[in-house]
Amino acid sequence: MSLDSLTSALPPYARDIRLNLGSVTTTSRLSEQRLWGTVVATALATRSAEVIAAVTAEARDRLTAEAFEAAKAANAVMAMNNVYYRSTHLIGDEAYTTLPAGLRMSVIGRPGVDRTDFELWCLAVSAVNGCGRCLESHERVLREGGLGRELVQEALRIAAVVNATAAVLESERALATL
Question: Taking every annotated instance into account, which residue ranges of this chain make up the domain Carboxymuconolactone decarboxylase-like (predicted)?
Answer without folding.
Answer: 99-175
